[in-house]
Design goal:
Layout lengths: L18 E4 L7 H12 L3 E4 L13 H9 L1 E5 L9 E3 L3 E4 L3 E2 L4 E2 L14 E4 L2 H6 L22 E4 L6 H8 L1 H11 L4 E7 L5 H4 L7 E7 L8 E2 L4 H13 L4 E8 L5 H16 L7 E7 L4 H10 L12 E5 L5 E5 L1 H18 L4 E5 L1
Parallel strand pairs: 1-2, 1-3, 3-8, 5-9, 9-10, 10-11, 11-13, 13-14, 14-17
Antiparallel strand pairs: 4-5, 6-8, 7-12, 15-16
C-alpha cells in the first residue's frame, strides 16, 4: 500500500520536509545553519529546539506517526561514536554517515528495524568533524585495502549505508562538500554512494578527481510499486550517464533482487535498459553489486506496520533462515532460487555489459 495521501512525494520537486528541527548544539555549526537557511528559503517550517533532545510529538496511530516522521528533517550533531567508522562489508572498508534516515517510501526498506523510533531523517551539522576523522583510516580496512580483487580502489568509504545522500543534497549540500574534499585529497582513497534519486546537477561540475563512485540503485519498472517517492528508473539511468560523462566512476547496485513472478524477463529488461543508457561511453568504469532481498522478524514487523497490504512477498515462500555472525536470524532465498537468480544475472551482465566488474553477490 502506498503512503497516505498527505505524505510528501520526495521526487516530485525534490524532497521538501514539512518541518525542520534543529538542536541547540547543531546551531553552533556553520553547516547546520546553512541547512536551515536552505530549508527556510523553501518555506519549510523551522523549529529551533531549546536543547539537544528531539521532542518528537507524533500521533498515536502508527501509520500517521510514520507519515509525520517521514515529513520531518532534524539537524543534529553526530556524536563521537559516529566519527569512529565501522567496517561495511561487502561494500567498502568503512562506513561514513552524513545522515540517518531517508525520505523515500520503499516497502522493503533496509533501514526498517535498524534505526530505532519513528523514521525521521537526521542530518549532521558537524560535517567538518566527520571529514577530520577520515585520515586516521587510510590504509586500513579489509574490503578493498587488503583485497587483491579491489585493492586498486584504495581505502573506500561508503556514504549511503543509513541514508540516501543524493535525496537530501538540495537541503544539505553535504554530499557535494564530501566529494570536493575527496577531490582535493591526494591519497589512495575513494568515496562511494548509491542512490535511488536522480538530481545530480550539483555534482557534475565538482572537481572530484575521480575519487567518488556514484552507483544507481535499481530495480525493474515492474517493481516500481515497491519504491515509492523515488526517481523513475529511466531518470536514474540518465543521471548515471551524466555522472560518467563528468568523469566519475559509476556503478549499479541492483537491490533488492526480488524473485517475484516474471523476474527473469523483468531483470533481463533492466540490464538491457542499462546497456542502452550507457552505450557509447568511452573507457567506462562500471561496477555491479548484486543484493538479494532479505528481511528479519524485526524489519518485517516494522514494514508491515508502515505498508499494510503491500504486495511484496514476505510470507516465507522459497526462503530459508540464515544466522548472521552477530547471532541474529534473517530470511533469505533458498539455494535453488539463489542459484537461478545468480546464473541469470551473471549471464545477462556478461552478454550486455561485458566491461562491467561484478564486485559481489549476496
Amino acid at each position: 500500500m502506498q503512503p497516505l495521501p498527505s505524505s510528501p512525494r520526495p521526487e516530485a520537486a525534490g524532497w521538501r520536509p514539512r518541518r525542520l528541527l534543529i538542536t541547540r548544539s547543531a546551531r553552533g555549526f556553520a553547516h547546520g545553519r546553512s541547512i536551515v537557511d536552505r530549508a527556510a528559503a523553501l518555506g519549510v517550517e523551522i523549529v529551533e529546539l531549546p536543547g539537544d533532545r528531539l521532542n518528537l510529538d507524533f500521533a498515536d496511530d502508527p501509520r500517521r506517526a510514520y507519515v509525520d516522521a517521514k515529513a520531518t528533517l532534524a539537524v543534529v550533531v553526530a556524536p563521537p561514536s559516529k566519527r569512529k567508522f565501522q567496517p561495511i562489508a561487502p561494500s567498502a572498508d568503512w562506513r561514513v554517515d552524513l545522515a540517518e534516515g531517508c525520505p523515500a517510501h520503499c516497502s522493503y526498506c533496509y533501514l526498517a528495524g535498524s534505526l530505532k523510533g519513528p523514521p525521521i531523517t537526521r542530518v549532521y551539522a558537524n560535517l567538518d568533524e566527520i571529514l577530520d576523522a577520515l585520515p586516521a583510516y587510510l590504509g586500513q580496512g579489509m574490503i578493498t585495502t587488503r583485497s587483491a580483487h579491489r585493492a586498486h580502489e584504495g581505502t573506500t568509504f561508503e556514504a549511503s549505508c543509513y541514508t540516501d545522500p543524493l535525496a537530501l543534497e538540495p537541503l544539505t549540500g553535504s554530499l557535494s562538500t564530501m566529494i570536493a574534499a575527496f577531490g582535493r585529497w591526494d591519497v589512495d582513497a575513494q568515496l562511494r554512494f548509491t542512490t535511488k534519486f536522480a538530481d545530480v546537477a550539483p555534482l557534475l561540475s565538482l572537481d572530484h578527481g575521480g575519487r567518488t563512485r556514484m552507483r544507481a540503485s535499481l530495480n525493474p519498472k515492474a517493481f516500481a510499486r515497491f519504491e515509492g517517492g523515488t526517481a523513475p528508473v529511466g531518470r536514474r539511468l540518465q543521471a548515471l550517464r551524466q555522472m560518467a560523462e563528468a568523469g566519475y566512476p559509476i556503478g549499479l547496485t541492483i537491490a533488492p533482487i526480488i524473485a517475484a513472478p516474471g523476474w527473469e524477463d523483468a531483470y533481463a529488461g533492466l540490464i538491457d535498459d542499462v546497456a542502452t543508457a550507457l552505450h557509447g561511453l568511452p573507457e567506462l568504469d562500471l561496477t555491479v553489486e548484486l543484493i538479494t532481498h532479505r528481511y528479519n522478524p524485526g524489519s518485517k514487523a516494522v514494514l508491515d506496520s508502515w505498508y499494510p497490504g503491500s504486495a511484496l512477498d514476505m510470507t516465507g515462500a522459497n526462503r530459508v533462515t540464515k544466522r548472521t555472525k552477530f547471532g541474529t536470524e534473517k530470511q533469505v532465498y533458498d539455494a535453488a532460487t539463489m542459484r537461478a537468480l545468480r546464473t541469470c544475472f551473471e549471464r545477462a551482465i556478461a552478454d550486455r555489459l561485458p566491461h562491467a566488474r561484478i564486485l559481489y553477490w549476496t
